[in-house]
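S.,

Sequence below, as promised.
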Amino acid sequence: MSLDIGAAITEGVDRLRSRDGLVLVGAFLVVGVLSSVATQSLTVGLSEAALEFAQSADAPPGTDIETLREQVEQTRAGSPLALDISAGLAFGLAFLIGILAETLRIVSIRLFYTPAGERPADLTSGLAFATVNGFLGGIVVGVLVVLGLVFLIVPGIFLALVFFFVKQEIAVEDSNFVDAMADSWALTRGERLNLLGLAIVLLAIGFVAFLPTIVASVAGSSTASLVVGAIVSPIVTVFGIAATTRAYAQLKAAEPTTTEDAGESDEVGALGPDDIPEP
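The prediction came back faster than expected:
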């Protein structure tokens, strides 16, 4: 059975419009706002730390303090959600929000993998383990893909496709990220061109969804761009998780039960000539 891209997209839309999908959109919206607060706070904190260093005795000769002070003021003006906290505290806040986002992603995958109208019995089972592995797996895969893109682009695209379902394997199978990478490699074998098609469709949908944000940004309305982006981003995120997870469910359903088949083959293969009954 080949991957049905149309079915994955259709089911992704249906899951997005479901009660669980709308609740997840709201949850990702909150996480997105918190992430913006942490990111802007970190940006302002780093710029202020650079200014403080420039004003210290350890600063290299010729440091333009006035220019740095202007940059700090510009950064503050462009970061309306920033909190008045240190860069270290802002980094810790950003890290915690990243963990929260990963937990939400794991829960989303488990919900969308379960057939429509049903509730997974293990929704929060092993959630801490899955979150840590999802977080680490995302970093490892991200680094590998970026390195692959640096080397002639094609290796990066290939790695992105073979590790397409790492998060799904972690969330559904309770795998560690190393085993999940290996299982995703095996599951995507023979389906990578179809997955490339799915990825292109998802990217195209995301681009169209973010067009209002791009237009607002080009028009110079940073506030409108920020608001529209905050609304669109969680919708695109939840839809992408839903469509990808439904594609994963297709391939898992078509996966042969290798253990049982192998057991039957071993039993047949173990029969000797003397075990065959006489006609």
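Residues 71 and 172 are 47 Å apart (CA to CA).

Coffee later?
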